[in-house]
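go over both lines:
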Amino acid sequence: MFNFKTTLYLKIILILSLIALISAYFIEHVLGHQPCNLCLIERIPYGLSAILIITMFIFKKNERFFVILLILVFIFSFAISIYHLGIEQGYIQESTVCGVKDLTESMSKEDLIKQLNKKIVSCKDVTFRIFGLSLTSINIVLSLFLIITLTKIYIKYEKNK
């Protein structure tokens, strides 16, 4: 089992993940800033990390495995955010992920017209900034911080084996 300090770090990561999710939904639903598809994808690692950490605290087994999963989750978050930042800055061309809505269901003519009339948010448009930084930029920093912290936890776990 992890020591007190490691447990504290994991609780802080859980709180940061929940704050990231709550903030994203607040910005979308209360402040009215529509997210692009990549912004929605960038939320997934935070929800997944919350589920993994809560599961780890409930079962109190396989901590090392869960930490490795968390590292992989935030590597995915970091990679998606770097890709998104590249699109925002114009270094990478916007892909079809950015404009495609749900194409799995068959649509009536009226539904298709409604969807065409909806404003689709481009992945290169930054609709919300904090201290001049896009949420994608903040996500890059946070993901990198979490990767480093979780890697230190894993290394400490390996030393105490």
User: Anything to note?
Assistant: The chain is about 70% helix and 0% strand. The domain at 4-159 is CATH 1.20.1550 (Bromodomain-like). The chain has one domain: 4-159. Residues 75 and 147 are 7 Å apart (CA to CA).
